[in-house]
Amino acid sequence: MNRLKISLIAACLIISQLSYGQMGVTTINKQQYNSISKSVKTYAYNPTYALRINWALCTYEIYVNDMLVDFSFATGRSTGEQNIDFPQYILKSGVQKIKVRVYAPATTKGKTEPFLSPETVFSIRVVHSEYGNEKLKEAKEVYHAKLPALTKKTTTYEWNGEFNAEVPYILKGWSSGTDLRKEDPKVLVKEVQTLVDRYITAFKKKDVQTIASMIYNREKEVAQAFFFISGEANNYDHGWERLEQEANAITEMKLINGYTMRILGDGKVVTLLQTKGGDRDFPAIYGEMKDKENFYGLYLYRPKPGAPLEVIR
């Protein structure tokens, strides 16, 4: 009987590993997930790169290395210069691409003016400083641009630029991913939807192992990019328990209507984003708790031809 039990357990483990392998995911346990921060390396200088944005009378999107870093389709204006950290989108040192799209201002939720206003204001800076340094004035600037004076009617103004980043690590990220633009979009979106459904189902079933296994590679790279080291703020020492708490707190989770498939990362990353109103560009996965609402972003890539999609950001 003991041999039979051992054989059955081994068989179950093999089946479990095969099922995860078929979806491109290695099974991750609690100890592995809670050890993410223990593998984070620190250096003499641990930089965090950030956007500094000031805007009025417009909506906008900002891309770094063709990844959507920040956006707003809400009414109003910024209250001073806004700060958005984005080191997870810098995979290695060198030249980084930046693209800015400024659109006509939103008047009410879901509606925009027909044209950009001559009074539109938009400026952007890219800065870096030691992780955790709250003294914003000490950040070093590596890029600065602003919207020029508009002399003719236009609905959108776009520009591209570059800046140099120096980071002490190399993240694999989506760099070796296949070009998803060459694939049949109808087939691709179904694969994306299937993976998203698996993620949503895992939350509904409180299946923390599936959730942790799906996002493990992403969380490892994000932890390194932000220097989330063990024992310090924002570490993963109790990450598994936080996932459990979050899954237990979810009262509803679903893929909401009004989304589209977007291909980013120079063709190597795919995701589902909303298309309408003030929530435009927000992730299409909606989660509701008693006291708040969340949108869950899953940015996927295919590590090699024929491999299943995996979560990378």
What does this structure look like?
Keywords: Signal. Residues 1-21 form the signal peptide. The protein is α+β, with helices and mostly antiparallel strands and 313 residues long. The protein has 5 helices and 17 strands. It has helices spanning 2-22, 30-34, 185-204, 208-226, 239-249; strands at 47-56, 59-64, 67-72, 82-85, 94-103, 106-108, 111-112, 121-130, 140-146, 156-165, 252-255, 259-264, 269-274, 285-288, 293-296, 300-301, 310-311. Strands 4-1-8-9 form a 4-stranded antiparallel sheet, with no helix packed on it. Strands 3-2-5-10 form a 4-stranded antiparallel sheet, with no helix packed on it. Strands 11-14-15 form a 3-stranded antiparallel sheet, covered by helices on one side. Strand 16 (300-301) and strand 17 (310-311) form a beta hairpin. The model is unreliable at 1-22 (pLDDT under 50).
